[in-house]
Design brief:
This is Phasin family protein. By secondary structure, this protein is mainly alpha-helical. It is built from two helices and no strands. Helices cover 89% and strands 0% of the residues.
């Protein structure tokens, strides 16, 4: 009976290694994105609850006027926060794309090397 020998190194190099690297990159990206989203939700929740508490403190016309004037600053702060959160998300997306692209390029180069060495062996 003949024994069957299969070299798994090319398979590992061309398929499994890059797949693992991409999976790790995706998990890291997801962790960062979820963390940023949770941070944003907490900030928006804290801000909204603070505004609700300020509204509960309104007792008269002057208090209402003061509260309404504070709404301009509140709107400005929320707008700034939204802008910052959007920029953070864009930065995360761009970083993930660049790292994915580098990973694909290095995987392709490694696959070409393996293919050339397999051709040379044959």
């Amino acid at each position: 009976m003949k024994s069957f020998s299969f070299d798994t190194k090319p398979f590992e190099t061309m398929l499994l290694g890059p797949a693992r690297a991409y999976a790790a990159l995706s998990i890291d990206y997801s962790e960062k994105l979820v963390g940023a989203q949770l941070e944003a939700v907490k900030a928006y929740t804290d801000t909204s609850l603070a505004q609700a508490r300020k509204l509960l403190e309104v007792r008269d016309a002057d208090g209402l006027r003061s509260y309404l004037e504070g709404q301009q600053q509140f709107a400005k702060d929320v707008t700034e926060r939204l802008k910052g959160d959007a920029e953070k998300a864009v930065t995360l997306h761009q970083d993930f794309f660049q790292q994915s692209q580098k990973l694909a390029e290095s995987s392709l180069q490694e696959a070409q090397k393996v293919a050339q060495s397999q051709t040379a062996k044959a």
